[in-house]
Amino acid sequence: MPIYWAFLTYMLLRPGEVNREKHWFEFHNLDKIVHFLIFTVLGFCYSVSFPKQKKWLFVVVMFIYALFTEVAQGLMNMGRTMDFYDLIADMMGAGFGCFLFWQILSYIEKRK
Fold first, then answer.
1. Average pLDDT for 4-18
2. Which residues, including other chains, have CB under 8 Å from residue 79's CB and lie 6 or more apart?
3. DSSP at 82
4. What's the rounded Cα separation, in Å, for the pair 77 and 83?
5. Using one digit for the tens of pLDDT, what is the confidence trace for 38-57?
6. CA distances from 22 to 10, 13, 30, 93 (A)
7. Distance CA 7, CA 51 (A)
8. What DSSP character marks residue 67?
9. pLDDT tens, 54-94?
């Protein structure tokens, strides 16, 4: 889990590429999907690591981390910008990861 946090922080805060070529598979707002997916993994891993933690604390931790990374992107001036919609995608992804964890756990409990 700590390795994923470090990797995610690096990926979100590394310098952006200016004037790079777009690949054939890229489309407008692809980054929102990427934010959603990486925070889905984070939300799932966090839920696995702390299954008995209160849900409100999960929301607070994910929100603070997502907000921190977005504000840092805006302040660092390294080719990245703060984007409110990235923050929304981050929170939706984290929530979906938590939801997946609880669905899988519920399925496993029913099979016992």
1. 77
2. 15, 16, 17, 18
3. -
4. 13
5. 999 999 999 999 988 898 99
6. 22, 20, 11, 25
7. 22
8. H
9. 989 999 999 999 999 999 988 988 778 889 999 999 999 99
The tokens describing 86, both together, are 């990235």
Query: In Å, how far are 28, 52, 53, 99, 112 from 56, measured between CA atoms?
Result: 33, 12, 9, 14, 29
DSSP string for 13-25: HSPPPSSPPPPTT
- Using CA atoms, how far residue 84 sits from 41, 54, 68, 106, in Å, is 20, 26, 12, 33
Q: Say if residue 13 is exposed, middle or buried (CB neighbours under 10 Å; 0-12, 13-18, 19+).
A: middle
* Nearest residue to 94 via CA among 65, 51, 52, 73: 65
53 DSSP 8-state letter:
S
Residue 49, Cα to own-chain centre: how many angstroms? Answer: 16
Interaxial angle between packed helices 2-13 and 30-49, expressed in degrees from 0 to 180 and rounded to the nearest 10? 160
Place of tokens 């299954």: 51
